Amino acid sequence: MKRWLSLSLAIGLGTMALLSGCASQTPAKIRIGEVTRSLFYAPQYVALSKGFFKDAGLDVELTTTSGGDKTMTALLSDGIDVALVGAETSIYVNQQGAQDPVINFAQLTNTDGTFLVSRNKVDNFSWDQLKGKVFLGQRKGGMPQMAGEFVLKKHSIDPHKDLNLIQNIEFQNIATAFASGTGEYVQLFEPTASQMEKEGIGHVIASFGKESGSVPYTDYMTKKSYLEKNKESIQKFTSAIYKAQQWVATHTPKETAEAITPFFPNIDAAILESSVKRYLEQGSFAADPILKEDSWNNLQAIMESAGELKQRADYAKLVDTSFAKAATEGR
């Protein structure tokens, strides 16, 4: 009888241990809301396609939330756990006196991602050639428009006085509007800019990313309360992003283009490759997820120039680099 009880107890304990082990291996779910589907976010798609999140024990669900306001609303209402959006949105939330501030914990892009596209071929371009022209701009208060205005002002152009500036077209419709004949110049992301060139609709003549300098253009952020309750998952997430950033940095544009193709099924392979190459050459993909204070300050200088910043936001309050630093150190 004792022997039978001992055997039963051993089997029972073994079963419990097995079940416990299975439970501990259940992937932690993280819901990401990306502000738009953009090749600019190539490392994120590499992390998904190469299984880096899965390898880290995460079940990542990606949703395109289409717009900064919608993305932040989804985050604040718990519709998503993590937002991939411009760092300026966390500052806007802070300016509104949020009790549960939104914290930037990992940087994905390191420059503005837009290019100046001209309807006509331009030889020997100079920025003053834009004066008096119809310019199809971006949404007021968003990073593309603010970075664009910052660059224009650097070249002594007042975008609201020296240009015929159009800003009443939704982000997702800007390229279509330009293709339909609206505007002489437009500010576009890749791969749309290259597609315009291929179709003979426009010509890339300058980079706003090169002109505006290092800036935390797109970051991963979450509410402080979520961050404090899910530190282990956020660390795994950040480490997976860093792994993807390193992968992109050490592989050819063609290899990266192939890895992200499932996320851009309607884009020509050659266009994907050339777009990745263009972003790599100007340092648009952040080499690591650490959001540096000088970049944060440059962001706020751009916001101040656009008249969108009430007062400077405290880097120490809205940025937590502990997860990014641990990722780069292999912790």
TrEMBL record:
Q: Which UniProt keywords apply?
A: Signal
Major localization listed first in the record, in broad terms: periplasm
Protein name as catalogued:
ABC transporter substrate-binding protein
Family statement: Belongs to the bacterial solute-binding protein SsuA/TauA family.
* Classification via Gene3D superfamilies: Periplasmic binding protein-like II
Keyword Signal carried by entry: yes
Quote the subcellular location field of this record: Periplasm
Which PANTHER family does UniProt cross-reference here?
ALIPHATIC SULFONATES-BINDING PROTEIN-RELATED, TAURINE-BINDING PERIPLASMIC PROTEIN
Q: Which domain of life is it from?
A: Bacteria
Q: Source species, please? A: Brevibacillus fluminis
The record ties this protein, via SUPFAM superfamilies, to:
Periplasmic binding protein-like II (SSF53850)
Asked if the keyword Signal belongs to this entry, the reply reads yes
* Gene Ontology cellular-component annotations: periplasmic space
